[in-house]
Amino acid sequence: MLPSHLNGHSPLAGRRPRLSSAAGQSLAAGAGAGAGAAFPLAEHDRIYFQSYSHIGIHEAMIKDRVRTDAYRTAIMHHQKFIEGKVVMDVGCGTGILSVFCARAGAKRVYAVEASEIATQACEIVKANNLTDKVVVIHGRVEDVAVEEKVDVIISEWMGYMLLYELFIAPITNPERYEGSVDFWCDVYGINMSALVPLAKKLTSEEPSIETIGGENVLSWPSVVKHINCYTFTTEEFKSITAKYKVSSMMLAPVHGFGFWFEVEFNGPAESSHNFPSNLNPLDIIQKKRRRGSDDTVILSTAPEDEPTHWQQTILYFPDPIEVKQDQVIEGSVTVSQSEENPRFLNIHLECSTEGQTLLKDCAMR
Question: Residue 12 in contact with residue 145, Cβ under 8 Å?
């Protein structure tokens, strides 16, 4: 979400991006850093963009080899769509994807960034001798206007529980439960079990971002939502409801449900290939795996795959539910945009198994 302003010495000065008066000052890729953007922001947006001004969040994302390699590989795999074209990198951060695109032969890259890290993105562009190709613009993409047609949009926009292929499955995690809840029953020989109810409440009241392994997953995952990024509408994201019905693969306590996603980087022609709506979740997973065995680039945050900075999103129950092997677990999940803050997600989970029913509501902040 950040680019740069051009001065008279830049070869791109004749194509200086136009920002609306609300968008504030742009920064020039080849010039010194300019002042911060002055566009008016809602408080939740201000806090969100401010968080991306800190180098730590970019370090975590760039060090995520699965994430960064997937994007670099996808860019080079689809180089024919990028070479000689005008690209816009939405939410460019430090500009690493913009540099990848420039090296893939893009005619020009408009790197748009709303946070103050745009200043450093300009310096990175300059340090890599790409000021003739990459233009860093400091502003929100909603407020930015460029004076030439953009052929390709690239963005790493995925958040925790992000939706492209969003999966859900019951999980067991006795180590986490014992470490956070049962721990209080005997602390250095002292009975502190009075803290157990509070520990259960704190453990389960909000989604937990952590890494679990394939061994923690009790069933085949169920697909919550498949989204074609070429054709989706914003209405699809306001509220998503899906039913699930799975069977436990073992005798174990269900401590909650895990969510994760997978992204497939394909071209426009391939994107028209949608999964038929009558496929069951396992069919979809197997179909996608077969396609992934070819040369399709897939970014997976699944528990059985290499960990990423997204990890998995876990909704814990206050108390575990004991299940037997092959016991059916069914219910529904609704993920909706919060009215309080459009950047928050409300999650409503219903779970039933052999006469036991559990309802859980929480917010992803």
Answer: no
